[in-house]
Amino acid sequence: MFNKDASFSSIYRIVLLLFFTIIGCSPKDQVSEADIELVKSLQSDTPQESIITLDSVIKQQKYDGIQKGLMYFEQGKLWSKIHNSTKSIQSLEAALEIFENNEDKRYITKTHWLLGSENAYISNKEKAVEHLLRALSYAQDLHNQTDEANTYSALAHTYFRYQDYNRAIEYTQKSIAIQKELQDSAGLSATYNNMAVIYRNMADLPAAIEYNLKSLRLNLALADKNAIAKSYNNLGLVSQELGDVKDATDYFNKAIKINHELGTFNANPLTNLGDLYLDGNELQKAEECYKKALAISSKNEDLASQRDIYTILLNISLRMKDFDQSMEFAKLRDYYMELQIKRDLQEKLALAENQYKLAAKEKELHYALEVNRRGKIIFIVALGFLLLLVLFWIQNVKHKKLQVEKEKMMLEQSVLRSQMNPHFIFNALSAIQNSLLDNKPIESATYLSRFARLIRQNFEFINKKYISLADEIELLKNYFSTQMIRFKDRFDYKINVDNLDEEDTEIPPMLLQPFAENAIEHGFKGKKEKGLIIINIKGEEERISFEIIDNGIGFTPKENDGKTHSIDVFMKRLQLIGKGDERSVSINSSEAGTTVKFHLRR
Amino acid sequence: MIKVVIVEDEINARNSLKKLLSLLNSDIEIVGETGYVSEALQLLSTQEVDLVFLDVRLEDGTGLDILEQLEDVSFKIIFTTAYDQYAINAFKYSATDYLLKPLDPLELDEAIKKAQSSIENEKQRQELLEVLKNNLAKKEAQIVVKTTEQQYILKLQDIVRLEADAAYTVFITIESRIIASKNLRHYQEMLSEDFVRCHQSHLVNMKHVKSLYKGKFLKMTNDDLVAISTRKRSDIISLLDRN
Asked: Which residues make Cβ contacts (< 8 Å) with residue A448, sequence separation at least 6?
């Protein structure tokens, strides 16, 4: 039904288009924009900020599967970085679950490994070992020897923490074996170093030195100066413990030298050397070392170190009884202590602020989503309303169209009724009957055919919108002559056409007949003299003017007699033409006659 | 001789009637003719008249105006009209004789014969005229129902239903049952507006239908159940829905 209605289908299409356009551009853009922001902050922010960012990203449910697992994994690593093992374990466990669901063995390995390390930190030995053994079996399963070696190292570290040095050594050796096989010199160097630390803690200082030297040799072979410096520093520490002050001093100096050459701001060898001198009561040299260390710490903006170094310097100056200096050091120590406290506070505040900002951001995001959701609902409701409105409008238009059609039909019927007034028809027939009964066959035949012609014309013209003026005049003449059957010579008529081509001029059919009928049926009744109707039709510039004049007794229009007057029908017809011609109608009626005037725009 | 007055304003119709009367019946004497109410009143009150042909529309009023103004109507009346649906309905309801113009000679002949033979008394004629006047005045519609013995005047709104009984029709009204001497079809044609033929044997006043009963009957206001024929069921139901 609606498909047939062209206006509806086009409106429908526009509405649909509107719908998709709005849906299409409204909800998603903002979210993805926010996403980019989050990813950016993840790269540039501190671990704390990144963690929060990841949190909100995870909460948005934007990622699922491995992606989400990786988010948790990264978060776990970040927590680990800032030594929050509990949180780290939480994140990693979440990550692990996802990886396990997705059977991603590589990440299962890595996660177990990290979980093991974190559990080790919080002294959850059983868990740590369990995770690490799992990591180990996965790594073996995958033939990933790097991971295997790392896992052994982690196991070693775990046992080391629980002072199970034998097992620590055992696992470290396994790690070493694999790294040797892999010829992973860098890894091996680190593992040797680990081994050295274990032995040092076992007070097996020669063994420690042995491994430190192994590490050093690898680092030298790798020409990794940073690592070399660290090895020298470690050697220095072990030597110091061995009481080998000369070697220790030597190693520390080598480390200091390399760091200096590299421009590495590592104060450790310097402070270690300072400690060494302090132990040897070489206060001057110690002070010198500490001051150098101080410079590096200052460059590093390491407030805690500066504070610590000033404390030591204070002690030294006191021991040197240099009170002026000690006063100054005390002041500086206090200053840095304060500064450090302040910075701590600032950092905490900054963190809090950051968290607040992120929370706000998240809230905003939620709000945006909510607004979007609400917007969608409002939009859908509005759309529904719009559709209803459109439907209503279409119905209305249809209804109006129908109404107009109906009115037109009614009007056509009433035109028919008014033109072919039943009384006129039957009275005309009575007149013909009378002539028959008078035994006047020729006259009767004439009347009958005259009447038949009128009826025929009525049938012909009734459905036409326009007929030629010639046809209308023909119709009028026929009407008059039919009426003359009834009234004989009681009236006469004249039709004058001026400045018009009768064949070329078109007018609505049977427009003038109602006035002719009024004159004959009412105007001339009860009038002794002969009636006369004059019809003047004149062509003017942009219109045709009509004049119907009779010398009847005039009429007063009866109101509300329940019948449609032929004049009402006439007015309505002019109205429906839509040119405003109905306003030109003027009717003057008196006892001396009636004059009707109107014009039609061409 | 039957003394006849013709009240007719259309000259051709009047002449035609006169010629037809002379051709059909030599026993008729036209004692007067006019097209005006005033003249008719004078004609009818000053002389004895048996039959009046009375046009509904006249130059200066209606045929009814004449009857209104006459003190007593002692003559029989045959109404004539060219076209007046409303008047025709009123004639039908009041069982009044009427003729349509141009006249049918056979109908005219029958009407005259019927008028001659009818034994209606003054009271009955007055009643009929009352009903006619009432109906023409657009008051509550009334109908004249003739039985073999007498005539009843019923208000349309009081008629609950009509039921066929062979060649007769039973009128069931709010308070009575009347057996009319005409068949149901006659009344169906007459009572076309509010009355619906829901069954071969039943004509019901839709205004007295209370409800649809079991989809097969109409329950009337007097609790009568009237059968609905299968053929008419859907029409009746849609008609009920509309009301």
From this structure: A432
